[in-house]
Amino acid sequence: MKSIEQNYAKTALNPIKVKSIQDAVAFLNSLVTDDGKPFLYHRIHTTSVGRSKPIDCYEILKAGGEKENLFIDIYNGESFYEIPNGYVQKAEMLVPIVYGKKLIMQSMGVNYRLNNFPEDLLISL
Question: Rounded to whole angstroms, how far apart are CA atoms 14 and 11?
């Protein structure tokens, strides 16, 4: 379901709600940008702005080099797969992208900080 809230997932006060790290990674991997292109991501830090439990902040690298942050709360009893604005659920026909010399067919990333992002992620592919 697409979120109707403009700032959904874009701030720590209104994060994506899932029940585990595995659900967070699976959910991000299931998304592409509105134009059908996959993206790369890594978790850059954790915050607790105005909350008692930590919220993970993921840096998203879109095709063309645009970056933005998405916030995810992994401490819920269930997962709410609400899709943030600017993203859609992965379709059958993706628009592959090239980062460096790697052809990327789906969104992918890691649940930890990479100091040399996205280069360190691409090396592992």
Answer: 6
Residues 64, 22, 31, CA angle at the centre, nearest 5°? 30
The reported pTM is: 0.83
**CA torsion, points 97, 101, 106, 112, in degrees to nearest 10?**
-120
Q: Residues 113-120: contacts with CB within 8 Å, 24+ apart? A: 113/42, 113/43, 113/44, 113/45, 114/42, 117/40, 117/42, 117/59, 117/61, 118/40, 118/42, 118/61
Q: HSE-up of 40 (CA within 13 Å, CB side)?
A: 25
| Residue pLDDT, tens place only, 16-56 | 999 999 999 999 999 999 888 999 999 999 998 776 789 99
Can you give the residue ranges of every domain in the chain?
Answer: 16-123
Sign of torsion, CA 58 63 68 72?
negative
**Predicted confidence band at 94 (pLDDT cuts at 50, 70, 90)?**
low
Closest CA to 82 of 96, 93, 70, 68: 70
